[in-house]
Design a protein that fits this description.
The chain is mainly alpha-helical. It has one domain. 82% of the residues lie in helices and 0% in strands. The protein has twelve helices and no strands. The two termini are 22 Å apart.
Length: 234
């Protein structure tokens, strides 16, 4: 798994997607920081993080679109399938590499918070809540993108598919409002990524929300392993 992790991490920075992801993510974070905090003369970073929630949804597919599809296109996936590494190890190596790139991009928000704290008190509980929430959201969306990337060798299709599935999972709470059955509506709401992100925005660390995101990440990793293992057997 470590070898796959290193290989994938190097690949992220040997090709544009890794740099593009970090640059665009930090560009948006910088713009919102200037607009809401510096120009707005405020230490409240809620608006910034709320916007970064949307930015994360749009940008994660750029990061994940090549994770598996590039190997399929270049036929290097056959080497991975024959390597003395478990399928789970291959998938986890790729997931962790993408997650590290995402974490590097996210780090700018903590730098911004520290800059604000040098001039005025900040609500660290809310800031850390948003940060942890965004990290868990990103992990789940990366797992979603990894699965979609496994199913196609076309990176554009992988990016669009990853975005569509992620967008659907985030909007489930809105779709639940169209369901008349209250039990079913509640169940659908509980599956929404946005529903479980709200507590983090208030600085509330709810274990159930953490478990939800970790469970969704694990589920999509499992589905990716199954899809990849099917090709190994074939």
């Amino acid at each position: 798994m470590i070898a796959i992790f290193k290989r994938e991490l190097n690949a992220c920075f040997d090709m544009p997607p890794g740099y593009v992801f970090i640059a665009v993510y930090d560009l948006f974070a910088g713009y919102f920081f200037f607009s809401f905090n510096l120009y707005g003369n405020s230490t409240d970073m809620r608006a910034l993080f709320e916007m970064m929630f949307t930015v994360t949804l749009f940008l994660i597919p750029i990061l994940t679109m090549r994770l598996m599809s590039e190997d399929r296109r270049a036929h290097t996936d056959q080497l991975l399938l024959m390597a003395p590494v478990s399928t789970t190890g291959i998938v986890m190596g790729k997931l962790l590499a993408a997650l590290l790139v995402y974490l590097v991009a996210m780090a700018i928000t903590l730098v911004q918070a520290f800059m604000l704290s040098c001039f005025a008190p900040v609500e660290w509980s809310v800031i850390l809540g948003h940060f942890i929430g965004l990290f868990l959201l990103g992990a789940a969306l990366i797992a979603v993108g990894l699965l979609i990337s496994t199913l196609t060798e076309n990176q554009i299709i992988a990016a669009i598919g990853g975005f569509c599935v992620g967008f659907f999972l985030i909007l489930l709470d809105s779709l639940a409002g169209l369901i008349k059955n209250t039990v079913l509506a509640g169940f659908v709401t509980d599956l929404s990524f946005q529903t479980h992100y709200r507590n983090f925005t208030l600085g509330i660390f709810n274990l159930a929300d953490v478990v939800f995101y970790l469970s969704m990440t694990t589920l999509f990793v499992f589905l990716t392993v199954c899809a990849f293992e099917k090709r190994r057997i074939a």
